Amino acid sequence: MITSTIQPPPSDGDMVGLHARGPLLTAFGLAIGWLVASGVFSLIAAIQLHSAAFLADCEYLTHGRVRALAETSFVYGWAGGAGISAVVLILSRLGGNPLRAANWFGAGSVFWNLGIAAGLVGIATGDMTSFSLLQLPRYVQPLMVFASAAMGIAGLLAWSGRRRDGTFASPWYGVAGLVLLPWALTAAQVSLLWFPMRGVLQAVAAAWYTEAVIFLWLTPLSLACACYLAAKLVGRALPSYEAAPLAFWMLIVVGTWSAGRHLVGGPVPAWIPTMAVFSFSMLLYHFAVVGLNLRPVFGLSGSVGSALKFGVGSYLLYGAVAFLACFRGIALRTQFTHFASATEQLFLYGSVSMILFAALYFLVPQLLGRGWSSPALMSGHLAGATIGVVLSVVALGWAGISQGAVMLEPKTGFGEIASGVRPYLLVNTGAQLVLLASNLLLAVNFLRSLCSCCQGSGVSTALSEGSAS
Amino acid sequence: MKNGPLFLFGLLVSAVIAWSAIVLGAHGQLGGLTPWFDDGEGKSHPARPTGLAARGQLVYADLGCAAGHTQQVRRPGFGSDQERGWGDRQSVARDYIFQERPQIGSSRIGPDLANFGARKPQPPSAETLLALLHSGSDRHPAFPFLFETRKIEGESSARALKLSGKAAPSVGYEVVPSERAVTLVAYLLNLNSPYVYPEAKPLVRAVAKEEGKK
Fold it and tell me: Which of A255, A311, B81, B92 could be bridged to A354 by S-S, CB 3.0 to 4.6 A?
């Protein structure tokens, strides 16, 4: 039975090695910090959508810059930071060895976070690159390549030194996520920043990178966590596992061919959006198999189980919505509207973030050697995050659909369109507020757990490093 | 997937192939686009943006204006871009060849700006634009940091904005656009690509015919 290689839940908290706890906890703590920061920026951006004057007279917070700040701190700071750390930890657990090259991971993580901090200052002062998901200023971009590679090395070593080998999707996705980001980031930098291509080719290269962040980085990282958690929480073999390798390779091979879905009707060669429809229809196989493999999670209960359930469900829904929006007839109504933000929110928050929340709640106790200090804060956070995501995705999606419909009417002016979608945008602001508040609960819970752990057992000096974050 | 190196090799090859196909493929097709020389007019299109406008594009990019405005007109029959007066034809790749950082954008909170410098019935004037940038409107944020409010010493500056109402500076003061505001406005007014390239034509006709049949 191929799935027999899934290990039983680890009994001791020391499999990672004591030395690796400090860097990993620090990385998780900083990622949570970026999550809260991005919540503040998202809230400002959401308010500016219905009240254009809000903080716009502050040069550092124009709508364009706030959006870039929110996106960068969320994608690189939170999702990237927490995702890479969780995957490195999972790879080391699945490998059955203490984490090697923990120093590389620690150094990489420090530079990763320094790069983001410097990059955010750069964006606020006007150095953003103006390419979606690649907004970090050019002077920190090379640093991000090296930092992500350094963090990834620890995961790669854990995987290559594995004692057990078996068919289990989590390490494939994890390794793919760790390896492909430095490559994709380099390719994007060369074609967009160092030797910029001409004219609209920049838009094509930027769309490819957007797709790479989605399908070659964040999806593999979050699916690595999801597969691992599903096996642990469900406690038995996942169904239809024989199809998992093909689903994995489908994602890696055809995932980024659908870059053209961001350019439908644009001034680019027509085959690029057409190719997106074709390749995304092949990706449906990937989504179907992920759904089949992970369907036991839909029977889970409890906070972590519900978060995982929600994350996997959002991922499948994202696949369906994004596939539909590839088609020209539908893109005509959805592109350039808030619908695109809704889809992005569904993926980034609903899927990646919720899976990472589940991973954090599952993994951090193993690092601490004791549970989270407050289960109430944990369920409060997950409930708030769920409500916030649903509200904001529905509100933005609805706003986008109604906006798209009236935009087709040439007589309707932009004032009328704006007042038409204003109620939905107000709901979105409320949702962002809920998300920010609930993420604060996570931050408080994390800090309290660290403190109580330090006081309680005085485990190691490494932990105090973690709490300093 | 027991063979580690082979697995890693497979990952990289997959990513490289996809990148080459999409990015290098498009580059092979469009990388060599040259301006179009019109024999009748005796000049080539598109024109290079003026120096001021090229600098203005950097201001446009660093303020993140692309978060709310696109610069791409969709083809007739695909959206209402023509009817809204954003351009008579679809945008094509050749329109952007001289732009250092094309801002085609992906969100239309405000109107498309691809041909902003040639709005009908009449293009906006620099004064109106500067006033909008300074004071904002119900729907457009104000960017007062692009302007300097200073005490009038001697004669008031010729570049000073003529503001009235709430936006007007107090007596004895004037509002002067900074260099960034001036270049940004020059850029916006320079945005215009009226010339109908051969590649912009046929689709228009085909769509028109189809619509005629209906």
Answer: A311
pLDDT in tens, B88-141: 888 999 999 999 899 999 999 999 999 998 887 788 899 999 999 998 888 899
The pTM score is: 0.92
* Residue boundaries of the structural domains of chain A: 294-469
> Chain A contacts of B76, Cβ < 8 Å?
none
ipTM: 0.91
According to the CATH classification, is domain B45-213 in 1.10.10.10?
no
Q: Does residue B76 have a cis bond before it (omega within 30 degrees)?
A: no
Which B residues in the span 21-50 are in contact with A, Cβ-Cβ below 8 Å? 21-23, 26-27, 29-31, 33
Distance, C-alpha B108 to centroid of its chain: 12
Query: B174: which DSSP letter?
Result: E
Q: Which residues contact B5 (CB under 8 A, 6 or more apart)?
A: none
Contact between B48 and B98 (Cβ < 8 Å): yes
A274 shares contact with chain B (CB less than 8 Å): no
* Helix (H), strand (E), coil (C) string for A385-447: HHHHHHHHHHHHHHHHHHHHHHHCCCCCCHHHHHHHHHHHHHHHHHHHHHHHHHHHHHHHHHH
Residue ranges per structural domain of chain B: 45-213
> Does any CB of chain B come closer than 8 Å to the CB of residue A255?
yes
Interchain proximity A202–B102, CB inside 8 Å: yes
CATH class of the domain comprising A294-469: mainly alpha
Q: Parallel, antiparallel, or unpaired: how do β-strands B43-45 and B36-38 relate?
A: antiparallel
Residues 6+ apart with CB under 8 A from A31: A77, A78, A80, A81, A82, A85
Taking an 8 Å cut-off on Cβ atoms, the answer to whether A259 and B22 are in contact is yes
Nearest residue in chain A measured CA to CA from B142: A57
